[in-house]
Design brief:
The chain contains 8 helices and 15 strands. With 321 residues, the protein is an alpha+beta fold. Strand 13 and strand 14 form a beta hairpin.
Length: 321
């Protein structure tokens, strides 16, 4: 590989989630740092101990105008974007988690060397979600914000040590089907109200969540608009039959599935006869209790190497483990 010229040498801050993918990300982070150093770039490699330290390291890198590279999964990227969203900072992504749905949506390569080179390639602006709670709490999301059955699956998957990869989300889905609560929906999309009973809602900037479930196969993170997928009340058996189709985005013809689009989505969801608050999750992370307003932020994040050709519905995501 060619060495960079003096003018093209980059100041890089590589942040690696040491716990991602059972520790495999830590090894990948060191390899990425070594590779980029061998190419003549100035690399600072950090393995933050916790979320707060991650935020502080990103803040420092943004203030120093350094190019940031995240080595980890969607959850780690979620925390990093809290500090570099709507700034001039460029983020490179080396997918090293179990789901890697954001990297998939942006067409980023999986092999280590190709991923490292993409992470220092020219950047492209992509959209983000902004989630605002009634208490003024604000969070950004990269992929999908979801509540209901899908959020319950996410929570269960988080608590499972086995299996790894997208299979964990599939197993968590099957386990949650046994309880399958119904919810009352209070949804406003660009001023138009939608209500009734449902199983889940997904507000999508990108196509997939849960390690490749393409719940919103037409979502485009460069379009400046969000896809809102509502799965209405249906039986556990019907939902089970729908599940395999989501991996190729072929579930939209199911009578329980509604898809709408909008830029500003106000979402409330509750379980009848239950007083407990439901929470919204984005990129697999808790972003606070409902109700919330989810707004698209056009071009809210600069991502290195993001492909202008977003993967089409029906593509099978490569297993990176």
């Amino acid at each position: 590989m060619d060495q960079p010229t003096k003018e093209s040498v980059k100041q890089l801050t590589v942040l690696t989630n040491r716990s991602s993918n059972s520790g495999r990300a830590e090894v990948k982070g060191y390899k990425v740092s070594q590779l980029l150093t061998s190419l003549g770039h100035h690399v600072e490699h950090h393995l933050p101990d916790d979320i707060q330290q991650t935020y502080e390291m990103v803040q420092t890198a943004v203030a120093a105008d350094q190019h940031i590279i995240a080595v980890g999964g969607d959850g780690f990227i979620h925390h990093i974007i809290q500090e570099c969203a709507e700034t001039p900072a460029t983020l490179g992504i080396v997918a090293a988690g179990t789901g890697n749905d954001f990297a998939f949506a942006l067409g980023l390569p999986s092999p280590l060397e190709a991923a490292a080179l993409a992470a220092i390639s020219p950047a492209r602006d992509v959209d983000l979600l902004r989630c605002d709670g009634l208490d003024g709490h604000k969070r950004y999301g990269a992929t999908i914000a979801t509540a209901g059955f899908s959020a319950a699956v996410n929570i269960r998957a988080d608590g499972m040590a086995w299996p790894r990869g997208s299979t964990r989300y599939t197993l968590a889905t099957l386990l949650e089907l046994a309880r399958l609560p119904r919810y009352e929906l209070d949804l406003v999309i660009d001023g138009i109200g939608v209500d009734g009973s449902c199983l889940m809602v997904a507000i999508a900037n990108t196509k997939a969540f849960g390690g490749g479930m393409q719940i919103a196969p037409n979502a485009d993170p460069t379009a400046g608009i969000l896809d809102v997928v509502v799965v209405r009340d249906t039986s556990a058996l019907s939902l089970l039959r729908m599940l395999p189709k989501t991996f190729k985005g072929r579930h939209l013809d199911h009578p329980a599935v509604e898809v709408r689009t909008g830029r500003c989505i106000q979402l409330g969801l509750r379980r009848p006869n239950h007083s407990a608050q439901l929470n919204l999750r984005s990129d697999g992370e808790d972003v606070g209790s409902l109700p919330q307003t989810v707004t698209v932020v056009p071009g809210g994040l600069r991502v290195a190497g993001a492909s202008p050709l977003v993967p089409i519905a029906g593509e099978v995501k490569e297993n990176t483990e």
